[in-house]
């Protein structure tokens, strides 16, 4: 089964073609980041308009350049939520319309299910059941995953998402959006141990997170340095490192707890922050000690992309699920409400 995937939930237009027999055949990504950069964040209306401008030409170009004829497409998967409603509607309307024109089924995919399944695109994919840490710009969640669509939320951030905290700290450090990779690069120059920041909510039971206090801690430290006339480039790098280590350690502690409490032996990480090398290394050390295994997608499939949507949609269309002739788009959408993809042996 060959599926065209369309991702337009935020500021990236992602297009991909996934074939259940041959794997990922083609993918393309257009990021609007330069357009939004001057505003310091994503402007929803501009995002929608840019998806309108890019999505259809990208689909045409991708299919032409890979010699893929529309008659070989068996279904269309588009991101139906959660995300910016106007941006979602562009991909949803386009996906639904193409499906109607090509007389194939369409399915609206949950964006976080897309992220969660992205490690399945790799050569050594995880097998169910596993614990998933979703760490992106809008989400920080620990999820018990028994099969596709069999999700139970174990814990989540009570305030800022991990990626959001990276982006806000980047702003304080004078770095541009999206800040995660830039904070990580600056932290490379940091002096280990010069600053130690708190690991929020780790000294009490539970699997929830909170990152907004840590962000305030960073702001106060920068203010103190500035007041003392000591806010040098080196000091900024030292702060970036202390922040990154605090986030990573916090995530490691909670993932260890989730593995212990669930008895599961596989951990997958997904979403933009799962591209972070310090996080991958910290979790890699932790799972080794607990005889568990860690899985993640290649960096370009950690952040938003069309491949994860094509993959997730393909699994659901293969199981016989599809949308009626309606355009599905939801700004908010609870992942636990998704139907199971097929009966799993785990019950
Ligand atoms: P959501 O998926 O929750 O709707 P989103 O789609 O905006 O949010 P993603 O595209 O998955 O989020 O990820 C983007 C986020 O990942 C940004 O906050 C960015 O700063 C962060 N990020 C990307 N690379 C890194 C990195 N190497 N280290 C830390 N953070 C990173
Ligand atoms: Mg983005
Ligand atoms: Fe995302």
TrEMBL record:
<dbReference type="InterPro" id="IPR000905">
    <property type="entry name" value="Gcp-like_dom"/>
</dbReference>
<dbReference type="InterPro" id="IPR017861">
    <property type="entry name" value="KAE1/TsaD"/>
</dbReference>
<dbReference type="GO" id="GO:0005506">
    <property type="term" value="F:iron ion binding"/>
</dbReference>
<feature type="binding site">
    <location>
        <position position="115"/>
    </location>
    <ligand>
        <name>Fe cation</name>
    </ligand>
</feature>
<keyword id="KW-0963">Cytoplasm</keyword>
<feature type="binding site">
    <location>
        <position position="111"/>
    </location>
    <ligand>
        <name>Fe cation</name>
    </ligand>
</feature>
<dbReference type="InterPro" id="IPR043129">
    <property type="entry name" value="ATPase_NBD"/>
</dbReference>
<protein>
    <recommendedName>
        <fullName>tRNA N6-adenosine threonylcarbamoyltransferase</fullName>
        <ecNumber>2.3.1.234</ecNumber>
    </recommendedName>
</protein>
<comment type="function">
    <text>Required for the formation of a threonylcarbamoyl group on adenosine at position 37 (t(6)A37) in tRNAs that read codons beginning with adenine. Is involved in the transfer of the threonylcarbamoyl moiety of threonylcarbamoyl-AMP (TC-AMP) to the N6 group of A37, together with TsaE and TsaB. TsaD likely plays a direct catalytic role in this reaction.</text>
</comment>
<feature type="binding site">
    <location>
        <position position="167"/>
    </location>
    <ligand>
        <name>substrate</name>
    </ligand>
</feature>
<feature type="binding site">
    <location>
        <begin position="134"/>
        <end position="138"/>
    </location>
    <ligand>
        <name>substrate</name>
    </ligand>
</feature>
<keyword id="KW-0819">tRNA processing</keyword>
<dbReference type="Pfam" id="PF00814">
    <property type="entry name" value="TsaD"/>
</dbReference>
<dbReference type="GO" id="GO:0002949">
    <property type="term" value="P:tRNA threonylcarbamoyladenosine modification"/>
</dbReference>
<dbReference type="InterPro" id="IPR022450">
    <property type="entry name" value="TsaD"/>
</dbReference>
<comment type="similarity">
    <text>Belongs to the KAE1 / TsaD family.</text>
</comment>
<feature type="binding site">
    <location>
        <position position="180"/>
    </location>
    <ligand>
        <name>substrate</name>
    </ligand>
</feature>
<keyword id="KW-0808">Transferase</keyword>
<dbReference type="InterPro" id="IPR017860">
    <property type="entry name" value="Peptidase_M22_CS"/>
</dbReference>
<keyword id="KW-0012">Acyltransferase</keyword>
<feature type="binding site">
    <location>
        <position position="304"/>
    </location>
    <ligand>
        <name>Fe cation</name>
    </ligand>
</feature>
<dbReference type="GO" id="GO:0005737">
    <property type="term" value="C:cytoplasm"/>
</dbReference>
<feature type="binding site">
    <location>
        <position position="276"/>
    </location>
    <ligand>
        <name>substrate</name>
    </ligand>
</feature>
<keyword id="KW-0408">Iron</keyword>
<keyword id="KW-0479">Metal-binding</keyword>
<feature type="domain" description="Gcp-like">
    <location>
        <begin position="24"/>
        <end position="311"/>
    </location>
</feature>
<dbReference type="GO" id="GO:0061711">
    <property type="term" value="F:tRNA N(6)-L-threonylcarbamoyladenine synthase activity"/>
</dbReference>
